[in-house]
Amino acid sequence: MTQPIEVRIDHNVTPSPVYVRYSHAKFARTQSVDPDGSVNVDKAADGSVIGIELLDIDDYTLGLAAEVARVHDLTLPEFAAHA
Fold first, then answer.
1. For the segment 14-31, what is each residue's pLDDT rounded down to a tens digit?
2. Integer Cα distance of 34 and 57 in angstroms
3. What is the count of structural domains for the chain?
4. 21 to each of 35, 42, 54, how far by Cα in Å?
């Protein structure tokens, strides 16, 4: 499983969005995972995941992020372990 190389939390806004980076590959597109856009996946041209953005941390968004991570063989940080 691929481990995150960086986790950023923006404490300047509420709720505090979280970005979990897995790669420094060149950005190609963003895929929204849910209709509200609260979980987004940045992808490279080859479809690999660059990062997962959670605009809010709750059971719903953590569950979506956990599913993205599972499908792409990624490890989420410890804060997401209870999703």
1. 888 999 999 999 999 999
2. 14
3. 1
4. 22, 9, 12
